[in-house]
Write a structure and sequence with these properties.
This protein is of the alpha/beta class and 616 residues long. It has 18 helices and 27 strands. The protein folds into three domains: 243 residues, Glutamine Phosphoribosylpyrophosphate, subunit 1, domain 1 (4-Layer Sandwich), CATH 3.60.20.10; 193 residues, 3-Layer(aba) Sandwich (Rossmann fold), CATH 3.40.50; 140 residues, 3-Layer(aba) Sandwich (Rossmann fold), CATH 3.40.50.10490. An eight-stranded antiparallel β-sheet has the order 3-2-4-1-10-9-11-15, covered by helices on one side. A seven-stranded antiparallel β-sheet has the order 5-6-7-8-12-13-14. The radius of gyration is 26 Å and the shape is globular. The protein binds 5-amino-5-deoxy-1-O-phosphono-D-mannitol.
Length: 616
């Protein structure tokens, strides 16, 4: 939540910062602001309510030609204080010599603000952030040493923060500080970047330094220094394989549509470094004897995640329990972090997160690690906080996911779970050679299967006008496809604002059936599997109550009278049960996308949401 950027170098800072903020807009978009250090050493600040384009037009309208090569910017997702121009970042000290952008929450800000007001400081906003420039203002009166003043300032702060700070009246510098919120640094040819996430500067450089908690970076025009407290440290520069084009819309109307279409390629990349098709083997980078023996011996695993990643976790449970004798629990991270639970020392926690920054998931990891449990994370963003807190990480390699609604993150996470379940089964001898090799063969063809699925269901836009009229939807699936129903319902809710609920088909009679009438449509997943007849029963129940049905069923469905039961029928390529969630979720993503697009919703940036939930 909230995106921060900083730039110092030889290019016009306003252009670079606005451009970088647009790439981070998925993190929050209720207001935005920028502070530039002018050639005269003054700070020029502009803020505006709403999206980055509003800020851009404001700067354009004022037609101020600011010649600046150093500045900071912010896109906000409000936590303290309503979305408004006053509460938008950057925030300044009394003399407006210090400008600060912040992502995170300063938990003790009320007390700090009270003390600062007593000392004579005056505040403009309702934000927690504003205490930072005022505290720093006091310390900079006592010393010329910026590092000392920043160290003293952060010593007073409780909570989570990533900060970027500029100061007027001296050699241009940007100070970056990280504790609990993401902050990465980009190393260009003649310039440096700070950002909450890599896509912000990917267009300019793919050389990245991942800052760790309690580290301070001071960026100057042609050099930088990183400190832990007062000690100067050296950090590795990582080359990121993502390229800038991956973080662009590339001709698609929305990132979400692009990311849906990218799934065959994304899944191919997930599989690439994990499966040796010649030797018919699955291997995970960095797995050592300790995790291998844990996976061989453990009797239960806990999976934790939020939102879409939690749905992938539910499928992970189904896969691991179907292929091995391990019992798996799946818990929302937001619940598990506060729940009293006996955790055996040799337990395994699997944490799933696209962004690697979700605050609740991160807290559960810390809780489990304190109790000596091992943590394996499944993550997309390289070097993000969750992999760095985990003992082991399996990367999904889905490429940057920009749209707030997760799509390729889900299919790649489920692919990892399938590979992991097969891996554990192999180690525990709970799958025979023939079956294992058969799964590997299907895996090889999975990207092509996803391509066919997209082609078979791309015409979903035709039914969007009719389906966008309804205010409520029920999504039904069974077994491994029940979490797919949950995921389909979540997609519809978050981008089209239509209420939708996911249910296992068998629960219909226990309540939800009461909702069904001609104004309450159902989306039904009816693959050809052992529960086919049972799900067919649901179709009957719904149709006899005049409910509308959108049906997703197997290509080889033998019933030719399906038209009697469903209003819209989509044939999905046949596939093995374990692969169905990866395949069936795609038409549900498309369905939500086209309904939301028909309604004219802001698909990539739905109201009230942000991509990474880095606060509680
Ligand atoms: O980055 P994470 O996977 O940890 O994010 C978890 C959820 O916030 C995320 O999946 C959210 O539910 C998406 N908006 C769903 O589309």
């Amino acid at each position: 939540m909230c995106g921060i950027v900083g730039y110092i170098g030889v290019k016009p800072a306003d252009y670079i910062i606005l451009n970088a903020l647009k790439k981070l807009e998925y993190r929050g978009y209720d207001s935005a602001g920028i502070s530039l250090l002018t050639a005269q050493g003054n700070i020029y600040t502009e803020k505006e309510k709403g999206k980055i384009v509003n800020l851009e037009s404001l700067i354009f309208e004022k037609n101020k030609k600011i010649s600046s090569y150093c500045g900071i910017g912010h896109t906000r997702w409000a936590t303290h204080g309503e979305p408004s121009m006053i509460n938008a970042h950057p925030h300044t000290d009394c003399a407006e010599n210090i400008s600060v952008v912040h992502n995170g929450i300063i938990e003790n800000y009320t007390q700090l603000k009270k003390e600062l007001i007593e000392k004579g400081h005056s505040f403009k906003s309702e934000t927690d952030t504003e205490v930072v420039p005022h505290i720093l203002e006091d310390y900079l009166k006592e010393t010329d040493d910026i590092l000392e003043a920043v160290n003293n300032t952060i010593e007073k702060l409780e909570g989570a923060y990533a900060l970027a700070i500029i100061l007027s009246g001296q050699e241009p510098v940007i100070i970056g500080v990280r504790k609990g919120s993401p902050l990465v640094m980009g190393v260009g040819d003649k310039d440096y970047f700070l950002a909450s996430d890599i896509p912000a500067f990917l267009e300019y450089t793919n050389n990245v330094i991942f800052l760790d908690d309690n580290e301070i970076v001071i960026l100057k025009k042609f050099s930088y220094d990183i400190y832990r407290k007062n000690e100067k440290i050296t950090k590795q520069i990582n080359k990121i394989k993502w390229d800038a084009a991956q973080a662009q819309k590339s001709g698609y109307k929305h990132y979400m549509l692009k990311e849906i279409y990218e799934q065959p390629e994304a899944v191919k990349n997930t599989i690439l470094d994990k499966v040796n098709f010649t030797k018919k083997e699955i291997n995970f980078e960095n797995f050592d004897e300790s995790i291998i023996s844990l996976l061989k011996e453990c009797s239960n695993i806990t999976i934790t995640a939020c939102g879409t990643s939690w749905h992938a976790g539910l499928i992970g449970k189904f896969l691991i329990e179907s292929l091995t004798d391990v019992t798996v629990e799946v818990d929302y991270a937001s619940e598990l972090r506060y729940r009293e639970k006996f955790i055996k020392p040799n337990s395994l926690l699997i944490a799933v997160s696209q962004s690697g920054e979700t605050a609740d998931t991160l807290e559960v990891i810390k809780k489990y690690k304190k109790l000596n449990a091992k943590v394996l994370s499944i993550c997309n963003v390289l070097g993000s906080s969750i992999p760095r807190e985990s003992n082991y990480t399996i990367y999904t390699h889905a490429g940057p996911e920009i749209s707030v609604a997760s799509t390729k993150a889900f299919t790649t996470q489920v692919t990892v779970f399938l590979l992991l379940a097969l891996y554990i089964a192999r180690k525990r001898n709970s799958v025979n050679n023939e079956d294992f090799e058969n799964y590997i063969e299907i895996m090889k063809n999975l990207p092509a299967l996803l391509e066919n699925t997209i082609n078979a269901t791309a015409n979903m836009d035709k039914i969007a006008p009719e389906l966008s009229k309804y205010s409520n939807y029920l999504y039904l699936g069974r077994g491994i496809n029940y979490p797919v129903a949950l995921e389909g319902a979540l997609k519809l809710k978050e981008i089209s604002y239509i209420h939708a609920e996911g249910y296992p088909g068998g629960e219909m009679k226990h309540g939800p059936l009461a909702l069904i009438d001609e104004n309450f449509p159902s989306v039904i997943l009816l693959p050809k599997d052992s529960l086919y007849e049972k799900m067919f029963g649901n179709l009957n129940e719904i149709k006899s109550r005049r409910g509308k049905v959108v049906l997703f069923t197997s290509d080889s469905n033998i019933y030719d009278n399906l038209n009697d039961y469903a209003d819209y029928i989509f044939k999905i390529p046949d596939c093995d049960k374990f692969f169905q969630p990866i395949v069936y979720v795609i038409p549900l993503q498309l369905l939500s996308y086209y309904i939301a697009d028909f309604k004219g919703c802001d698909i990539d940036q739905p109201r009230n949401l942000a991509k990474s939930v880095t606060v509680e």
